[in-house]
């Protein structure tokens, strides 16, 4: 090959790589542009009204005379809905991830995988429509009995498990020959107490009348289901990443599957599970359509603050709902305040993403070192 | 004993985790069941004679003679209703004024309900709105209207401690002793003769334009808008996505810049979709002035940014899954790296890349928040291709929201809403099914 030709070839390679890099940098450019343009329209608001009002007042009258921009209730609404979805999604998601990585046989796993994929793929507006048209009337008309049923479903298995552990621990010190009887009596007594308590609880819950089906509870449940696929798949990946060697080592020492999971696998992949939770929570915070359609959109702090049965309003729903009314051309205060809210959302998502990224990377390094 | 306890603990863990999986699957079932069962109601239902009259007059569809014959038949069945009405009106004139007043109000109510049920009363002026020119086109809605005629709803607030209770009051009893009394049993017994419900498969729901803001007709403008937006987003995102994946998997050599790029990609994936919408408004429309106001172009560009990370990740995975031996063989034959990528790597990774593309297509089709401020309008006609550069469009996800929350008669058009949701969900599910099948084929091929 001649000298000139090889130089030409090297030049071509250089330029083609430069071109590839340029196209790849679009993501970088997009992130920078998003920050720049959201911030550009958010700054006028902070210049105009300062920081204090937005984060401390609950008076949200962006189109009033004079306008008031107190978004505290909206932040609390977002927080409440997120908390609720965590309560739904995290226990369920982690348990399902454990089942998928360690418990279910291969064939069953292949059946469950599409379920997760479909849950992740369904459009958010379909979830929102379900929440508004089907779930909300159900909550409004049968809310009490639904709550009672949920209480039984959650408390009975968990309560039995706890009773079992307690009675096991209580008879540790008792003589061997009476231990069996003692455990049985104790467990029976505790179970009776549990059932009585649950009966009382469900009687109370049955009487609860929900005045509006579009409330924080509705949205929390739906958002929890929407966050499930993220949590399950990321948590399962990190449980898998703990590897065969750790599991086999633990089994070889005589540990049961549960002991292996709790004492070896989950400590080893704990950070990955935390990252999964962060990513799932971000999906819930950033979700718009479900909360816009089914949260009730009332900018008020529930009383007491954990009252999930009252309507709330979130950041995303406020942006989506108020932008239509805001005077987009003039760039009024109520236009810029929505960008200020979006900036808060954006910064939260950045922080959460970087945190989960960092956690996952650290776990990768650590597990790599283990092998 | 200790061992038994440990075993029991182990089993209960198994039980709880399997219960979680079952709950997850159940929630999917609970979610999809009503969407499917009621969504199919937009396509399969018992259409009345009004439906066939509408199809003929508005869409020029069906046999004109048959419809005319049917109109004559139902007209004959309806005549007694109108006769009873006019007889009662005559009777009303002769009544003493205090009794008359109460009847008048309710008669007016009944007449307007009858208009909704059967179409305009004979001898009335032609109505402006399409929904007033036709009666109920669907038998299920007709039965609801019939119920409203037979029984009036009242609220009972006598129990001050709880919320008001709904009480149904029979109108037949209210009109007892008048000439209108016999109207109610006649309506109840002869409604099917007046509307002649017949099983209808309305597949044109997908391809018809909507009439009178979705009271009648189909959802074609929305479907077309969704197709435009999705294809536009794919067109913009695919080249950049695949190029980025090629660079990251083949040419990037570690280093600060590359890890920065990776962080940016995952950050972009985590940006809430509503923020994308605001960004699209502030950047594509208010700064770049891609179009005067909302347009399909601006919406597609926004959606493209949203799905870019998904495409990059899926393509990178697919490229990495291509065996090293392929690349090495190509390089050892003297191909330049670029040529190796184009002729060996990309073809081998294509099915995997396609899988990612199909999945992100489903995502782009279903996203609502990014297009609220950039592309979507509630009412619109189907756009021509070149109009997408400057015109906004209705789109399935946005119109589902709009019809379910902001429409003036939300309850009357539930079937349209469910039909739209089903169409969107089916679209997304079919795309995902295609991706799953494609992936299954790849893994089969890889195993050899």
Task: Kindly describe this structure.
The complex is a heterodimer of chains A (371) and B (448). With 371 residues, chain A is mainly alpha-helical. Chain A contains 13 helices and 2 strands, in the order αααββαααααααααα. In chain A, strands 1-2 form a two-stranded antiparallel ribbon. In chain A, helix 6 (124-170) crosses helix 8 (216-241) and helix 12 (315-323) runs antiparallel to helix 13 (333-370). The mean pLDDT of chain A is 87. Chain B is mostly helical. In chain B, 40% of the residues are buried. Chain B folds into 2 domains: 48-199, no CATH class; 220-447, Orthogonal Bundle (MetI-like fold), CATH 1.10.3720.10. In chain B, helix 14 runs antiparallel to helix 17 (414-447). The longest helix of chain B is centred in the N-terminal third of the chain and has 38 residues, at 2-39. Chain B is elongated and about 105 Å long. In chain B, strands 1-4 form a two-stranded antiparallel sheet. In chain B, strands 2-3 form a two-stranded antiparallel ribbon. Chain B has a two-stranded antiparallel sheet with strand order 5-6. The chains are: A mainly alpha (371), B mainly alpha (448). Chains A and B meet through helix 1, helix 2, helix 4, helix 5 and helix 6 of A and helix 1, helix 9, helix 10, helix 11 and helix 12 of B.
């Amino acid at each position: 090959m001649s000298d000139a030709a090889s130089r030409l070839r090297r030049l071509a390679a250089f330029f083609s790589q430069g071109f590839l890099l340029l196209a790849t940098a679009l993501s970088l450019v997009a992130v920078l542009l998003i920050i720049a343009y959201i911030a550009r329209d958010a700054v006028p608001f902070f210049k105009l009204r300062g920081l204090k009002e937005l984060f401390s007042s609950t008076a949200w009258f962006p189109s009033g005379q004079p306008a008031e921009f107190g978004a505290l209730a909206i932040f609390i609404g977002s927080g409440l809905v997120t908390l609720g979805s965590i309560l739904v999604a995290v226990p369920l998601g982690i348990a399902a991830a454990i089942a998928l990585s360690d418990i279910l046989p291969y064939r069953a796993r292949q059946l469950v995988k599409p379920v997760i994929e479909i849950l992740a793929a369904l459009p958010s507006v379909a979830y929102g429509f379900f929440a508004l048209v089907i779930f909300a009337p159900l909550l409004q008309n049968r809310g009490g009995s639904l709550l009672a049923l949920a209480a039984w479903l959650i408390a009975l298995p968990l309560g039995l498990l706890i009773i079992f552990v307690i009675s096991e621990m209580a008879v540790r010190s008792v003589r061997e020959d009476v231990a069996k009887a003692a455990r049985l009596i104790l467990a029976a007594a505790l179970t009776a107490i549990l059932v009585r308590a649950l009966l009382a609880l469900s009687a109370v819950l049955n009487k609860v009348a929900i005045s509006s089906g579009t409330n924080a509870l509705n949205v929390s449940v739906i958002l929890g289901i929407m966050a499930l696929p993220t949590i399950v798949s990321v948590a399962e990946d990190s449980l898998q990443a703990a590897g065969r060697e750790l599991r086999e080592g633990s089994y070889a020492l005589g540990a049961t599957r549960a002991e292996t999971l709790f004492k070896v696998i989950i400590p080893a992949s704990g950070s990955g599970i935390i990252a999964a939770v962060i990513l799932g929570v971000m999906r819930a915070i950033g979700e718009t359509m479900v909360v816009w359609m089914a949260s009730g959109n009332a900018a008020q702090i529930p009383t007491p603050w954990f009252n999930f049965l009252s309507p709330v309003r979130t950041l995303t729903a406020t942006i989506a709902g108020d932008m239509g009314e805001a005077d987009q051309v003039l760039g009024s205060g109520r236009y810029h305040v929505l960008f200020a809210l979006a900036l808060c959302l954006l910064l939260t998502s950045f922080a959460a993403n970087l945190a989960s990224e960092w956690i996952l990377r650290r776990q990768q390094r650590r597990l790599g070192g283990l092998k | 004993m200790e061992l038994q306890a440990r075993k029991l603990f182990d089993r209960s863990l198994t039980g709880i985790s399997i219960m979680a999986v079952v709950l997850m699957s159940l929630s999917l079932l609970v979610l999809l069941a009503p969407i499917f069962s009621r969504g199919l109601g937009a396509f399969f239902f018992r259409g009345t004679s009004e439906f066939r009259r509408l199809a003929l007059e508005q869409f020029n569809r069906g046999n004109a003679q048959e419809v005319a014959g049917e109109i004559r038949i139902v007209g004959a069945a309806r005549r007694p209703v109108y006769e009873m009405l006019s007889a009662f009106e005559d009777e009303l004139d002769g009544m003493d004024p205090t009794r008359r007043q109460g009847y008048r109000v309710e008669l007016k109510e009944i007449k307007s309900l009858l208009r909704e049920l059967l179409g305009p009363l004979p001898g009335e002026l032609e109505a402006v709105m399409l929904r007033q020119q036709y009666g109920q086109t669907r038998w299920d809605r007709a039965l609801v209207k019939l119920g409203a005629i037979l029984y009036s709803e009242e609220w009972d607030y006598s129990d001050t401690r709880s919320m008001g209770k709904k009480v149904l009051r029979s109108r037949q009893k209210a009109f007892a002793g008048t000439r209108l009394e016999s109207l109610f049993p006649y309506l109840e017994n002869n409604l099917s003769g007046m509307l002649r419900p017949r099983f209808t498969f309305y597949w044109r729901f997908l391809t018809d334009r909507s009439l009178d803001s979705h009271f009648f007709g189909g959802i074609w403008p929305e479907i077309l808008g969704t197709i435009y937006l999705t294809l536009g987003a794919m067109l913009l995102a695919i080249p950049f996505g695949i190029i980025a994946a090629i660079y990251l998997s083949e040419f990037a050599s570690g280093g600060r810049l590359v890890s920065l790029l990776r962080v940016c990609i995952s950050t972009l994936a985590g940006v809430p979709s509503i923020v994308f919408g605001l960004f699209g408004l502030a950047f594509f429309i208010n700064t770049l002035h891609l179009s005067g106001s909302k347009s399909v172009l601006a919406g597609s560009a926004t959606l493209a940014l949203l799905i870019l990370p998904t495409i990059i990740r899926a393509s990178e995975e697919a490229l990495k899954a291509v065996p090293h031996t392929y690349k090495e063989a190509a390089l050892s034959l003297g191909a330049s790296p670029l040529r190796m990528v184009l002729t060996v790597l990309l073809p081998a990774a294509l099915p995997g890349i396609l899988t990612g593309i199909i999945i992100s297509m489903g995502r782009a089709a279903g996203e609502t928040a990014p297009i609220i401020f950039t592309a979507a309008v509630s009412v619109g006609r189907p756009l021509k291709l070149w109009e997408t550069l400057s015109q906004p469009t209705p789109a399935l996800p946005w119109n589902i929201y709009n019809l379910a929350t902001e429409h003036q008669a939300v309850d009357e058009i539930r079937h349209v809403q469910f039909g739209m949701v089903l169409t969107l969900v089916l679209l997304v599910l079919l795309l995902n099914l295609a991706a799953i099948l494609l992936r299954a084929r790849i893994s089969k091929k890889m195993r050899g």
